[in-house]
Amino acid sequence: MDREGKTGPVDADRLVEDHKKLVYHLIHRTVRDRSAHEEIFQEVFLNVLESLPRFEGRSKLSTWIASIAVHTCYKFIQEAGRRERVGSFGDWLEAGPEPGVPSDVQERLERDDIRRRLERRLGELPRKYALPLTLFYLEGMSYQEIADILEVPLGTVKSHLFRGLKELRKRIEGGGDGPVLG
Amino acid sequence: MDPCLDDVFKLDYLNGTLFGGDRALFEEHLAACPACRREIAELRETAAAVAGLTPPAVPAAWTAAAKARLRAKSPLLVAAAPSRPISDRRRTNVFQYALVTAGVTAGLALLFWLAMGGTVRGLLPGLSAAGLGASDPSVARTVNLVVGVLSLHALLFVPSIIENVYRLVRRAGRRGRRALT
């Protein structure tokens, strides 16, 4: 499988190397329980491998893998029943991260620098805002690609991006974080 | 003051995806609306802060474990083995191009020869109607035509034949070297 989506013998190393950052980034943004990240990371790539024969090349390979990553996170939390009742995929996107983690040590480390504080505020946003913000501003994906990954209309992506930025701004200003911005 | 424009306008303006008349309309509104100017400035700052975040580094052990699991999972998988050196590939390509060029040139030369009134008899005396013992003029013409077409085909296949012989020789050489080691 190459970047254009042509099928052929799979180069496992290249598949992982080319997409590991995107996959990890999405897991990091979607599942707050860091002890589960490694297991989900492996699971995503195994799911990608199993689904590869069904990939038709209608979207970019990275968009398709991102979609599998998000759904794997959802399924993982759903099956593990971790600290939150998980409804449909849409309900799950609407919700914020599962409570209770990260640990006190991580919290303390995060308080130590501005970047980590911003990271934390972003991580506290409902997934419907955090994922579009991550995919658009950090992964450089288009509105349409994000719509495909999250299975929502294009207008919803734009609306969530805008509200996500507003919400993030509000949380930073109201969260006593000090000068995170500007 | 104009009524404030839709949030989608603001987002598209912010992200540089608002064009043409819509952009002009929005900029006209911005010039007259301090609240929207402030909002855009704040959102631009927030977006820049998000874009400036560094994605977390993937632990090397996870990457290695994922690769190992993928390789173990499917017989279709191939590890990233070192591919043939580029110089080797280039040599083969040059050889193939040379063969194809030679074949095409020979074919064109033959066509030119026939078009200029040349005969197969002149080119290949043994492979002619007379050489094959055809005395009747209509049979001789047919034989000449068939021999001409076959000769042209043969010439076009020459590169392929040479290349296959070359591959067989190389393969035999590799087997021989492997047997010695």
Helix content of chain A: 55-70%
Tell me the β content of chain A: under 5%
Order of helices and strands of chain B: HHHHHHH
How can the largest sheet of chain A be summarized?
none
Radius of gyration of chain B: 36 Å
Count of β-strands of chain B: 0
Low-confidence runs of chain A:
1-7
* Morphology call of chain A: globular
Count of beta strands of chain A = 0
- Name the overall outline of chain B: elongated
* CATH top level assignment of chain A: Mainly Alpha
Q: What is the typical, i.e. mean, pLDDT of chain B?
A: 75
Q: What structural category arises from helix and sheet content of chain B?
A: mainly alpha
Q: Flag low-confidence runs of chain B.
A: 78-89
What would you say the CATH architecture of chain A is?
Answer: Up-down Bundle
Q: Between the first and last Cα atoms of chain B, what is the distance in angstroms?
A: 88 Å
Sequence-ordered SSE layout with sheet pairings:
The complex is a heterodimer of chains A (182) and B (181).
Chain A: H1 12-30, H2 37-51, H3 61-80, H4 89-94, H5 104-111, H6 114-124, H7 127-138, H8 143-150, H9 154-174
Chain B: H1 7-14, H2 20-32, H3 34-51, H4 60-73, H5 86-115, H6 120-123, H7 137-180
Helix pairs in contact in B: 5-7
Describe this structure in words.
- The complex is a heterodimer of chains A (182) and B (181).
- Chain A is 66% helix and 0% strand.
- Chain A is built from 9 helices and no strands.
- Chain A has helices at residues 12-30, 37-51, 61-80, 89-94, 104-111, 114-124, 127-138, 143-150, 154-174.
- Residues 1-7 of chain A have low confidence and may be disordered.
- Chain B folds into 2 domains: 7-51, no CATH class; 86-180, no CATH class.
- By secondary structure, chain B is mainly α.
- Helix content of chain B is 72%, strand content 0%.
- Classes of the chains: A mainly alpha (182), B mainly alpha (181).
- Chain A binds chain B through residues 9-17, 20-21, 24-25, 28, 38, 41-42, 45-46, 49, 115, 118-119, 122, 133-134, 136-138, 143, 155, 158-159, 161-163, 165-166, 168-169, 172, 180-182, and chain B through 7-8, 10-12, 14-15, 17, 42-43, 45-47, 49-56, 58-59, 62-63, 65-67, 69-71, 73-74, 76-80.
